[in-house]
Write a structure and sequence with these properties.
Helices cover 41% and strands 20% of the residues. By secondary structure, it is of the alpha+beta class. It has a domain of 52 residues. Strand 1 and strand 2 form a beta hairpin. It is elongated and about 70 Å long.
């Protein structure tokens, strides 16, 4: 049996009351704002069509989950629905 001291109880983090939907939605919004979720991608044009390549570890994990090497616009839409921000990394200009 675990016993707690008064100091343990005073230092414990309070858990918000999530019994109503408004409190739950507010907590989710607070969590979303406190944690910036972002993936970085790079756009390339291959034979006239634009492809989206992962440019960070999180984006590569999404590709691995999808068993793909590139992401599609539908994939990007779903990733955004999950709360991620999709940042397009600019390609470095080439010099001739």
């Amino acid at each position: 049996m675990t016993t707690f001291t008064t100091e343990d109880l005073n230092n414990a983090r309070t858990v918000p009351d999530l019994s109503n939907q408004d409190a739950f939605d507010e907590l989710l919004e607070t969590q979303r704002l406190s944690r910036k979720l972002a993936i970085h991608v790079k756009l390339k044009t291959n034979y006239g069509s634009q492809t989206i390549y992962p440019n960070c570890d999180k984006a590569k994990i999404f590709c691995k989950l999808l068993n793909q090497t590139t992401l599609t616009p539908l994939n990007i839409r779903v990733i955004k629905e999950l709360g991620y921000e999709v940042v397009v990394t600019p390609s470095e200009p080439r010099t001739l």
